[in-house]
Amino acid sequence: MGKKIKKGKEGPVKEYVSRTKALKKLQVNLKDFRRLCILKGIYPREPPQKLRKQHKTYYHNKDVAFLKNESILDTFRQRQAHLKKIRKALTRGDKLKAGRLRRNQPKDKLDHLVKERYPTFIDALNDLDDPLCLISLFASFPTHKELHIPNTLIRNCQKLINQFQLYVAAHHCLRKVFLSIKGIYYQAVIQGATITWIMPYPIQASLPLDVDYKIMMTFLEFYQVLIKFVNFKLLGQEIEITDFSEEVIKIKSATSNYQIDIDEAFKEDPTIQQLDQQQQETKKYSELFKGLKFFLYPEVPKASLEFIILSFGGEVMWENDNKNSLLTDPKITHVITERQVQKNKKKEYIQPQWVYDSINQLKLLSVADYAPESTLPPHLSPFEQLNLEEVQSESEDEDQQQKEHKPYQNNKKQKERQAKQQEKETKKLAETMLSRKNKRLYDMIKKKEDEEKQKKTKLQEKKKIIQSKQQ
Amino acid sequence: MNQNNTINIRAIRNKKSIKKDLSLQPKNIHDQYYQESDDSEDEKVLSKIGRLQTKKYKDKDFIGYDENLNKIQKKKQFQDTIDEFINKTENKDWWRVVRDELNNQDVVLNDKQLSMLDRIRKGKTAIKLADDYYFEHEDFNQFDLLSSYNPKRRFLPSKWERIKINKLVQGIKLGRIVLNPPQKVEKIFDIWENVSEDQVLSKYLPARIPAAKAQLPTNVCSYNPPEEYLFTEQEKQQWLQTDPEDREIPFIPQKFKHLRNVPSSEQLTKDLFNRCLDLYLAPRIRRKKLMMKSTDFLPEIPKPEELKPFPTKLNFEFGQIDITKSGQVKQISISQDGQLLGVCYEFAIAFFDTKTSKCLYTKWQVADKQFLGLDFSQSGLICILQSNGFIILNSFIDKRLHPNVEDGQNSNKQIPKNSNNVFEWNFELDDNVFQQLLEVKMPYDPLYVQFHTKSDYLVSTQPHTHVKSHCILVHCISKSSTSIPFQNMKASTEVQQTIFHPTKPELYIMTNKNIFIYSLTKQQLLKKLLAGNQQNSTIAIHPYGDNLIVGSNDQKVCWFDLDMGKTPFKKMSYHKNGVRRVIFHKSYPLFASCSDDGTINIFHCRISTDLSQAPVILPLKVLKQKKKESLMDIAFHPTQPWIYSASKEGVVSLWT
């Protein structure tokens, strides 16, 4: 007989700690614990079923031990002591001292966290979606005293997102764009990592009050540091952006000479060929708007258009104080506007959607559909490609059917029907052949597929009805 | 006038309310202050609201009530803040304009009034007095009468202050105290420049699961979606009625004509906030996600067309004999060459020629005895079970076709009478076709009989014996003896059917729940198979001998692979009633089952000699009768893909 093992001493029980126990262990309050978790990127774990109790969150024991050694915890405690000093000074009426103390509050240093959470640069790039979204959201916010959103924070966010976009534009990393109801989605590929972020429209944002901004700001605190370092790594220096286009041109001129020239002998190596292919692909992206110059009217989202046009190789200008260049500039090929303006025959007049759609389809679309006075074709999501193809193939089928003669069609139809029935029968047979385990999986997946199919058919029916109405 | 006066005095006391009160006065305030004239006509209060606190009506549309208790409305000077702003830019004197709300007019303050206001703010009298200079320039402390002289300490520098200052000075010198510390500029550097393995903390931690990426927007989210994505009136109502948590799309899709028309939405902030909550509050689990289509699961099966031939439809029904006399069908069996079909009725045995469907011979039962079953042997003998025993007939129709018949006959002839036998063996040697060769009498009714492939041995099962060990009997014709292989049988075992293995010396005994495999040479139990059924009814062995099917009264057919284990390889429950019989085809990869629900299921079974490949079992066809009579027995044609079936009513039919 071995030693009797006491309850809770060994096995998976030992690995998990409930939140209250973790708080006790760390000797912090819930507010600080949350902040710590957010900054360190630690999240609750799901223990095995038998250990779980309802309405309880569990953390991994090692995670909590990891938090315990964190240097931020020290600053938490220092700050608490500092707050006490300020309170003391205030009750004594020593405003001067209180002010001085307030100014010299200990601040969290988050630099080491960046490296700890993302040991390599690629790790950081892979997890850049959320930081960029939040930063671009705060960049669009107005200052708010009651919600403690200071001006400095907003300025910093704007700076960071601009720097990042500068890199994306200068190196032609942008791949897809999408105008949604909420904002503009961008997708870029940087060093193989796909990064998607959303930017709100440049309208005065209204702040919903049922949202806890403190939590978002804690996230933002870390994200700012992260993006700061990412930007530095990407750009190689800190750039204060005053004119976006100028900076892009500067960077381009600095890097344009850099291109991999491959020796003839190595050209048949498959990896080299792949690299070559990649280069050609990026060239496609960088030369979509080459030689085009866009003039922006004030009602279009200037910053967004500038960013995407530059990153696809075009040029942008808008009405400055010196009005001489307005439209008389012979280099201007396209004018982006949403209002009906007096037209210059040499220039194309388009709505902003043309730019976004052309990018998604990677070709210059016909300008006529996007003229300011015409109703726009629907703007489709580039992230939903499957649907598009299906719709196209189906419409092709219909066309083919219409072309065929009727007598043949009947014969063919019958044959098709028979073939379909046979297929159905074999499918039924095969279903009976499934083992019980596979059958369950099969049923689950089939249910999902059927639901999707239903949705699609519903959409198509709706489309048909709409089309028939229009005709 | 009195009232006027009080107002003025109050105005001086209360700096805040001065603007309002001043506005009440006529322009020349200076004169008015001194000349206490009694005529109040100078001052015209247009709307008399009494002495009310105007603060209380600050937020309301009216300023108070007149003597008739009617509300006096406020009159807005400007439409909105923009108008006000424009006015400010145009009017240079806007800063000295004071609004008199009572009289609804603007009063422009002149310089004198302004200077008066200034004085009041500084805490001086409103108007310059003669003594003003005195108050402004003289020090009152000179006339401190209470303390006649200053103490010495007032003239000496303080020691303690000196000590304190010295400390501060020293601190500053040493750099301990920094008066205006320069703000630290945060350094930026390439943080990922040199990463060593030791610095990677995460490898000591539990595996980190990256958060799932946020969902990418679909066409519905577009500011200008295709028209079919927009809600109809009905869908909109439905959307509004569903709980916000259950909604498939968290917003109503909208179509905007221009990009500039898209309003700012709070949705994005809320979404990102929820995302933040998810990131730090939600536990993360790595779940396997199947990126498979449903069709990927389906095994590749040959089409039923390719598996032909198998019986698909009813060919014809045999001319039945008088059912009132013959009774129900008990069993059918087919001879090894496929020429004869034997049908066992309750009171008769009929033999049909399978080619012509003609009834060749009928044997009627005598007295109150019953026929219980029959089986053909390889060599052409027919064993017919009847009450209290069985008889054996010969079926030699054409002697030229059966050269080995003679041997069988001869062997029978040579058999000496065995006096030690338990049961009575009577030889009635007869050369004629369908004539009785021998009769064995037993004290109980055998239910099922099977010839061994060598046709010398018979195994008969009689479940309802009073001697339990006599359940299974093995008869040897050449020795004319009956042996009892299982002397010690448990009282609880209910043997249903016993069969020989086609090639090995093994005996398969099917009880209600299990199947036992006995070796006849070693005389021991080899294996026990668990079917898991409540009541097994029938068993059949594949001609190769590696596979087994068992039918049960609880509608199931189990396929056993003898190499695989105890439990069924596959269970098929396609019948809606108890299974009566299962059979294998001798030459085609087919097996069939018939049931009380009146259907025959035909299956394809492909068995490969490669052990790694599992047998392929495919349901092929369900043969349905027109009348849903329960089927008693089925039999495959030994060489053709045909199946014979016998229904309870005595209809024997052929399916091809």
From TrEMBL, chain A:
Report if keyword Amino-acid biosynthesis is assigned.
no
Q: What organism is this sequence from?
A: Paramecium sonneborni
- One cellular component term from this protein's GO annotations in UniProt: PeBoW complex
* Biological process per Gene Ontology, one example term: maturation of 5.8S rRNA from tricistronic rRNA transcript (SSU-rRNA, 5.8S rRNA, LSU-rRNA)
Q: Where in the cell is it found?
A: Nucleus, Nucleolus; Nucleus, Nucleoplasm
Composition bias, Basic and acidic residues: 416-430, 440-464
The protein's name is Pescadillo homolog
Which family does this protein fall into? Answer: Belongs to the pescadillo family.
Summary of the function given for this chain in its UniProt record? Required for maturation of ribosomal RNAs and formation of the large ribosomal subunit.
Region of interest (Disordered), ranges = 389-471
Major site of localization recorded for this protein: nucleus
This protein's UniProt keywords: Nucleus, Ribosome biogenesis, rRNA processing
Q: Does the keyword Endoplasmic reticulum apply?
A: no
PANTHER family, sorted: PESCADILLO - RELATED, PESCADILLO HOMOLOG
Q: Where is the BRCT domain?
A: 284-372
Q: Which SMART domains match?
A: BRCT
Automatic annotation (TrEMBL), chain B:
- Pfam families in the record: BOP1NT, WD40
Domain of life, per UniProt, equals Eukaryota
Q: Where in the cell is it found?
A: Nucleus, Nucleolus; Nucleus, Nucleoplasm
Residue ranges constituting the BOP1 N-terminal domain according to the UniProt record: 57-311
Picking any one GO molecular function of the record gives: ribonucleoprotein complex binding
The record ties this protein, via PROSITE patterns, to: WD_REPEATS_2 (PS50082), WD_REPEATS_REGION (PS50294)
Q: Which InterPro entries match?
A: BOP1/Erb1 (IPR028598), BOP1_N_dom (IPR012953), WD40_rpt (IPR001680)
Example GO CC term: the record gives: PeBoW complex
What UniProt keywords are attached to this protein's entry?
Nucleus, Repeat, Ribosome biogenesis, rRNA processing, WD repeat
Q: Where are the WD repeats?
A: 624-656
User: What Gene Ontology terms for biological process does this UniProt record contain?
Assistant: maturation of 5.8S rRNA from tricistronic rRNA transcript (SSU-rRNA, 5.8S rRNA, LSU-rRNA); maturation of LSU-rRNA from tricistronic rRNA transcript (SSU-rRNA, 5.8S rRNA, LSU-rRNA)
PANTHER family per the UniProt record, alphabetical:
RIBOSOME BIOGENESIS PROTEIN BOP1, RIBOSOME BIOGENESIS PROTEIN BOP1 BLOCK OF PROLIFERATION 1 PROTEIN
What family does the database annotate? Answer: Belongs to the WD repeat BOP1/ERB1 family.
Q: What does the record give as the function of this protein?
A: Required for maturation of ribosomal RNAs and formation of the large ribosomal subunit.
User: What protein does this entry describe?
Assistant: Ribosome biogenesis protein BOP1 homolog
**Species assigned in the record:** Paramecium sonneborni
Please spell out the taxonomic lineage of the organism that makes this protein. Answer: Eukaryota, Sar, Alveolata, Ciliophora, Intramacronucleata
